[in-house]
Every structure is written in structure tokens, then in C-alpha cells.
Amino acid sequence: MDNLSILTKGVDTLVTVVGAGFTGLYALFKLRDQMKVPVRVFESAPDVGGTWYWNNYPGARCDIESVHYSYSFDEKLQQEWTWSEKFAAQPEILRYLNHVADRFDLRKDITFNTKVTSVVWNEQEKYWTVTTNQGEVIKSRFFISGVGTLSVPKKPEFPGVENFKGPTLITGNWPKQPISLKGKRVGVIGTGSTGIQLITEIAKEVGELYVFQRTPNYSTPLGNGPTQAEEDLENKAKYTLIRHNARNHFLGVPYNEVQPSALAVSEEERLKVYEDRYQRGGFRLFIDSYQDILFDPKANETVSEFIRQKIHARVKRPEVAELLAPRDYCYGTKRPPMESGYYEVFNQDNVHLIDVKQTPISHIDENGVVVGDQLHEVDVLILATGFDAMTGPLFALGIQGKNHEKLTEKWKEGPRTYLGHTVSGFPNLFLVTGPQSPSVLYNMPLAIEDHVELATGIIQHMIDHQLLEVDADAQAEEEWVNHANELAQASLLPNTDSWYMGANIPGKPRRCLVYLGGAPKYRAICNEMIAKGYQGFHFKAVDPNSTLLQQVS
Ligand code: NAP
């Protein structure tokens, strides 16, 4: 009997993957077509796309250049696809993922409209029992989570929201049927990356727009534009180099002009650099200006003040500009949103900015949003209030490991992972872009490819060596958690209330959810771990006396 048959004996499939977004599609291709192993994929939506399926709100688009924010695993795929814009909008990204699904004939092996409701480890037989809301129960040797990092919208926390008589729309679960906001009075709660994109777009057509802002953001220009044919050809000719350079950059983009310290240069020189990065757009100001802006408050203040002045220059009414200009936290400690005309929206007479920090939203009634004792009447209410990031989607899977330990229990004081990819006591389970990995501070498709390859590499190793179980060592996990926390503590992130820190969800432990060492360092650590024979992991071989081996021999 061959090695694969040994690992699949007594189970329904070798690997179960949940999610059919960037992760699930690549994992399916890798496992089914390259490794030729049995795999099941479950997806709660009726179609592929993941985050790009659900977040179809007006204005949704990516903010890492599409030439980088795309799969790199197949040369033909990256040569044949041409993006129409520098930063593609949601419909085009969804078309791309559909193209990938069709091109590799993936759809036929994905079970749609099906939610995984529990994932329970069987210690005796060394498999996961995966149960779905459609009543299917399967035994799977391995489980790969591709549920995404920002896929469980935050629960509305406004008393009376259910009494509102008009539609209440949630950006992270936007209606699939077209909805017209033309001429309507619309209220938007939330001014993060989502709110900023949405507000800019709908301000073009709504009657009156009420923006309920709790914390202003340091938003900077996206710098979008149509794809230039010549540039596209050039990029395609050197795609291998582009990907190589992207992989060797902290954020996964091939920028190379970052300088060590904002404080080591004259003000004139610094402002020149900030202006250049601001004008060129995207993440350049954040990641390609000065290295110390995320670590030194004085360095950070130079860029924070630069952005505040930009906001004041663009917003005509000084009191509105001042409300839009953040003062009480450092730039970059909340995820920097990109904009394309956001600030100018507040120069429109029909756009009203309501500060709900000073006076919070007290409740929502049938007619609109009540702030203090003032009712703002609206016809449509939009909640752009964010997500229960990183841990929320994993908790929703109902994962239970060795000794019946629930993941929710293990992580009640905050996530604990080895390499942001595995969890001690939860064998044969792989988290793609899990907490304490570079994930959201890296170019997501590349981060996903890295993690899918890490997981499938371990699985291949286990097939080759007839290994039934892999579990992260508790000490290795402890060291990784400490390392990730130390890096976070050395940065300015812990001082700010953000979803990076879990601070957007009442009661969620305040822990940095992201690995701040950067993707190149992270990849070097993973490579060293592999070179040292999967250091930090314990494997269990097939027991020569076990019933399993007796069955297969
Ligand atoms: P977010 O950044 O968490 O923003 C949520 C907004 O809702 C914040 O302004 C928040 O205010 C506000 N809010 C939440 N609860 C509130 C309450 N009870 N009262 C008043 N205001 C409340 O969520 P997001 O905008 O959906 O973005 C999440 C992440 O998704 C982004 O950071 C980014 O990583 C990703 N994203 C990416 C893109 C892209 O271009 N690629 C686009 C959209 C989203 P506070 O700040 O005061 O909490």
C-alpha cells in the first residue's frame, strides 16, 4: 500500500479547506492538481471570491497595486490577465478570481452554500471531524483554514438598530441585488478604509449624506488610474523580478526608496520626501518614506502633521477640516486608509460630518440616528463599522483540539500560535494568514501563497514519511508568542485603539494580532525551521502495532 493510502485510510478526505477566496482556490489547485491528493473545499457563499464576494459595497477596491495584489504561482496566469486600473475595483477582482476558478476548473470541487459549523479533533484516530450546516459530517486528516482575516462583520452595537424603518446595509455583507441611493438621505457610521471608499463613491449621487465619525483617519491618496499598455508590457516582461522584489519587502510591494530616519534629515528634505510619496500614492508614504515612523513618536509626528496639513488644505471649512484631522494617535497605528477625493466630499453642501466621539450615538430609532438628543433623519443606514478581525472567523468554525480543548478557550487571553500558522494542541490544523503572522501587514495574495505552501509542504513531508500527526511544540509556541508581542511592544501600535490590537470589539483581549517583523524576516524564520527538520513541530508516525497499520498492511 502506498504512503498516500496509509494517510487516507479510515478518513473521507486527506484535507479539508474552508473558504473559496484567494486561499481556498490556491490550496485546492495545489493539493488536487499538483500534489494529487483528495481534498474537500467548503464555502458559505454561493460562489468563489471570499472577501471580494461579500464586500461589494460601492467604491470597494484594493489599495495595493493589482500587478502585485494577485497570484504569482502560475506564470501563464499572470501573463494572460490584464488589469484595467492600477488598483482594481471589487468587480474586477471578483472577475479575476472567477477566471482563476474557471481556468483551473476548481469550481467542481467546491461545495458552495455550506458553512462549516464544527471542527473536532479525534485523538484516537488522528483526524478532524468536520460538520457543516447542510448536515454533512466528514473525517479529514488535515484541516486548512482559509476563512480570511476580515470576514466576520462587527455586530451592530447601537440600541434600537432593529427599529429603523429603512434598509440597514452592512458593508461586509452588501446586498447582491443593485440598490439605488440616488437622491436619498443616507447615514454612514464608520470612517475606516471601508467607510472612506464608500462615502467618496456614494456622495456622487445621494441627496443628503450624514457621516457619523468617531475617530478620524490619516487617509492619503490612492493614486489610481487606468493601466498604461506600455507599463503593463514592461511589468509582464520582468514579472519574475517584480515578484522577487515584492517578496523581499516588508509589505510585499517592490518599493525601494525607504530611508532610515525622518529625524536624521532636514525639515525641507523630509517634506520633499513626504510630498513625493503622497503624490505617488498608495502605501508609499507609510512604507517607503522613513523606517522609524512606526517606532519613534517624534518621527511619527512629522508625518502625522504633514497629513493634517494636507487635510486642512483640502477641506474648505476649517472646523470640518479640524474634525477630520486626527490628533490623538500616531499615523499608521490604525491601518492607513487610501482615498480618491474623500476630503473634497466634505466641501459639498449636502454632506454633514457628525462627531460621535464627543457625543456618542445614543440609539437608532425608526427614523434615523440619535446623537445626544438630536435625531438625524435618514432613509438608508449604512454600517461600515468593521470586523471582528483575525480571531472572529476562526472562532466561528467551532474548533476543538486535543483533550476537547476549544480554540475559544485556549485563546481567551489572546491568540497563541506557532508562526501564526499552527496552534499547539490542535494537530494537523493550518491557519492561513493566522494571528501573529505578517498577514494584513503584507500583500495578502503573497502572504496566502506562502502559507498555503508552508501547510502543503508539511503535508507532503508527512505523506513521504508516513506521519499521521503534526503538532506545534508548546515551548516553540510560547517563544513565538513572546517574540511577536515583543516586536509589537517596540512599535507604536499598542498605544492606539485599533482592530490590529483587537480594541474595536468590546471585551476582546488587547493583543497585537499581526507579526511586525516583516515578511522577509518571517519567511527566513520559516525556511530555517524547515531546514532544521521542521523545528518546533512534533510528528507522530503510524504506530506499527496500531489497528490502522494492521488495516492497511
Ligand atoms: P475599521 O477600520 O475597523 O473601521 C470601522 C469604523 O467604524 C471606524 O471608523 C470605527 O471608529 C467605526 N465604528 C465602529 N464601531 C463604532 C461605534 N460603536 N460608534 C461609532 N463608530 C464606530 O473597519 P473597515 O473600514 O471595514 O476596515 C477594516 C479593514 O479592512 C481595513 O483596515 C483594511 O485592512 C481592510 N479594508 C481594505 C480595503 C482596501 O482598500 N484594500 C478596503 C476596505 C477595508 P473607531 O475608529 O473609533 O473605532
Brief write-up:
The chain has helices at residues 3-8, 22-34, 51-54, 75-80, 90-103, 193-202, 229-237, 239-247, 267-280, 284-287, 297-314, 318-324, 342-345, 391-395, 407-410, 444-464, 474-489, 519-531, 547-552, and strands spanning 13-18, 39-42, 110-111, 116-122, 127-132, 137-145, 168-170, 185-189, 208-213, 220-221, 338-339, 351-355, 361-365, 368-371, 374-377, 380-383, 399-400, 429-431, 467-472, 537-541.
Characterize the structure shown.
The chain contains 19 helices and 20 strands. It is of the alpha/beta class and 553 residues long. The protein folds into 2 domains: 3-48 and 106-152 and 389-552, FAD/NAD(P)-binding domain (3-Layer(bba) Sandwich), CATH 3.50.50; 161-383, no CATH class. The strands form 5 sheets. Strands 1, 2, 3, 4, 5, 6, 17 and 18 form an 8-stranded mixed β-sheet that branches. It has a 5-stranded parallel β-sheet with strand order 7-16-8-9-12, with no helix packed on it. Helix 2 runs parallel beside helix 16 (444-464) and helix 11 packs antiparallel against helix 12 (318-324). The structure holds NADP nicotinamide-adenine-dinucleotide phosphate. NADP nicotinamide-adenine-dinucleotide phosphate (NAP) binds at residues 61-63, 150, 157, 189-195, 197, 214-215, 335, 356, 361, 384-387, 440, 499, 504.
Strand content: 15-25%
Main sheet?
Answer: 8 strands, mixed
Number of domains: 2
Low-confidence residue ranges:
549-553
Q: Count the helices. How many?
A: 19
Structural class: alpha/beta
Over the alpha carbons, how many angstroms does the gyration radius reach?
Answer: 24 Å
What portion of residues is helical? 25-40%
Bound molecules: NADP nicotinamide-adenine-dinucleotide phosphate
Mean pLDDT: 96
Q: Give the overall shape, derived from the CA principal axes.
A: globular
CATH topology of the largest domain: FAD/NAD(P)-binding domain
Q: What's the CATH architecture of the largest domain?
A: 3-Layer(bba) Sandwich
Head-to-tail CA distance between termini:
7 Å
CATH class of the largest domain: Alpha Beta
In total, the number of strands is: 20
CATH superfamily of the largest domain: FAD/NAD(P)-binding domain
